[in-house]
Write a structure and sequence with these properties.
globular; 85 residues; Jelly Rolls; 7 strands
Length: 85
């Protein structure tokens, strides 16, 4: 069973494509689901629908996923796939 942070069915539309992120450059776009396939530390992340404490600086284990409306993500290390809206 995968670990995740978000609510309900992810409902990924794979026809919209995704961005594989393995570097430490900021990636922008509109993403609704982020899968971490390596242990990953996030340097910066922006979301349209998250409030409260920032997820920047958090480390996510391989297999973890985030669901929301994300507009940018930058990794310190690790790798993820960000699925487009």
């Amino acid at each position: 069973m995968s670990k995740g942070f978000g609510q309900g069915d992810v409902g990924i539309d794979y026809t919209l494509g995704a961005e594989v992120i393995t570097d430490s450059v900021a990636h922008t776009g509109r993403f609704k689901h982020i899968d971490f396939y390596e242990n990953t530390t996030v340097t910066a992340i922006a979301s349209e629908n998250y409030t409260g404490n920032s997820l920047a600086g958090e480390t996510f284990p391989a297999g973890f996923h985030l669901v929301g409306v994300f507009t940018s993500i930058q990794l310190q290390n690790g790798a993820c796939i960000a699925y487009r809206i």
